[in-house]
């Protein structure tokens, strides 16, 4: 019965238990009767069999046997409960612990449902271990690829800095114009290094070191980078600083946020004016053609802007009409 299923074992135990009651009763009755006859005959005792005398002894032995059967059944069910608790602890370790638990003991070729469940849990552990190894290999490949990619991008950027210096010397380019280009190259280099580092971690668990950042100073740096293109395309811009707004943010990520907003305006709004107001909230407004926020979510780069705002805990509200678009940003 060791390899049978649980329902079969249950019916066998119940059938034996029910059948044992009358059988034990009958066997015990005759056993008590013949024991009495044997003792009286052996010792020549003149004492007739009396049911009232032996009834107490009979029931003591009878119920003792029944309690013995109950104890055996309790031991069996205790063993089942122990197996279930072991499986429950194993599944909990899979869900909560970093390391996978040891596999459960399984009886080969058994039809026991608990044994089948243990075999399924073992299969799940093997599959999860295989997936963990596969993910680890993928992470190693991604890490190596990003290192190579970062190096391949930074190498021509260093050469570009040298070319800019030589070009400015040979063509008498003003220092202000060259500095703007230097800032662009430096920004790209920092961005590549930041993205390479970020991609080595899960996006939700990647930690950004934050500090107090002056919003209007960071915004002015971004505007200075775009000033050449804005002036070339006859786009006027004004910055009205009503208060020194301070946010808890990362300088590079805040720079990325403003870069994407200005880039979004420059590429898609067809505006001729950008008005920036720094007060309790930051408002960046253009007077272009506007767009449908839901429909143009990807084409206007809003997904990048929203993701950065989410990372920096910045509340973003965008209003867009045919008369222009306003970006309202605030941080509690």
- The CATH architecture assignment of the largest domain turns out to be 2-Layer Sandwich
How many structural domains in the coordinates?
A: 3
Strand content: 5-15%
Average per-residue pLDDT, rounded, comes to: 78
Oligomeric composition of the shown chains: single chain
Fold-level CATH name of the largest domain: Heat Shock Protein 90
Please characterize this protein's 3D structure:
- There is one protein chain.
- The chain has helices at residues 6-42, 51-96, 113-171, 175-198, 215-232, 251-268, 302-311, and strands at 211-214, 236-241, 246-249, 273-278, 282-286, 315-321, 324-330.
- 64% of the residues lie in helices and 12% in strands.
- Helix 3 packs antiparallel against helix 4, helix 4 crosses helix 5 and helix 5 packs parallel to helix 6 (251-268).
- A hairpin with a 2-residue loop joins strand 6 (315-321) and strand 7 (324-330).
- The protein starts with 5 loop residues before the first helix and ends with a strand.
- Residues 200-205 have low confidence and may be disordered.
- The protein folds into 3 domains: 6-102, no CATH class; 134-198; 211-330, Histidine kinase-like ATPase, C-terminal domain (Heat Shock Protein 90, 2-Layer Sandwich), CATH 3.30.565.
- The chain is of the alpha+beta class.
- A 5-stranded mixed beta sheet has the order 2-4-5-7-6, with helices on one face. The protein has a two-stranded antiparallel ribbon with strand order 1-3.
Task: Please provide a brief summary of the model.
Helices cover 64% and strands 12% of the residues. It is α+β, with helices and mostly antiparallel strands.
